Amino acid sequence: MPTEQQPLIVRDLAKSFTMHLQGGRSLPVLANAGFALKAGECAVLAGPSGVGKSSILKMIYGNYAVNSGSIAVWHEGAVIDLATAEPRAVMAVRKRTIGYVSQFLSVVPRVSTRDIVAEPMIARGIDRQEARERAETLLARLNLPSRLFDLPPATFSGGEQQRVNIARGFSTNHPILLLDEPTASLDSANRDVVLEIISEKKAEGVALLGIFHDLDTRERVADHLIDVSAFAPAQAA
Ligand SMILES: Nc1ncnc2c1ncn2[C@@H]1O[C@H](COP(=O)(O)OP(=O)(O)OP(=O)(O)O)[C@@H](O)[C@H]1O
Q: What is the CATH number assigned to the segment(s) 1-97+176-237?
């Protein structure tokens, strides 16, 4: 059972995709995936390309359906199984318990950069003014020029947009954070800032689960590695 100290436990998770373009053939990707996340630690999903790392993150965040198994999460003092939870419960877990940090910006147009980063904090009850100030601090740490704070990020460079989204993902105090390659294609100064933020999250007791392709980065953040190739289905091995 998950607890505050071990807030996420994955058991016997299986995933296969139905290939509609190939007559509905089933492509098994994962079988018997199991691991637990501890508060204050960063676990990293490792294994070769195509082994199912992103699929695991997407199932935990509720973007991919689960075939079987359980994803038990400690959510506001109770346990929820995300593998079978109703969409409304999944949304509540996203709001309060599990945050997602990725490099890809998918936000409404015409909203200023400052408000894009402040928005998840405001949604979680932080005063608007304070949320905006925290957003600015985070954006400045990620070396985004302050002249950009009032502008919507639609016209920003790829790297600038990526940093806005990273700031947004790290702005909240979710007790669990999923990290989908947050440092990919960042320059080394900004990558170091992200690594520093991850260390701070650990010190605050956040449980992190990430994908990091860069070996050096992985070594610096990982408290333990989860070898996803160990979860390959027998027929695909
Ligand atoms: N929506 C989908 N529909 C069909 N097949 C999918 C889908 N998503 C993933 N797959 C397949 O599942 C397998 C695992 O993909 P996944 O993206 O989870 O791997 P990964 O380990 O994250 O790879 P990489 O390191 O290259 O990002 C791949 O064979 C992929 O083609």
A: 3.40.50.300
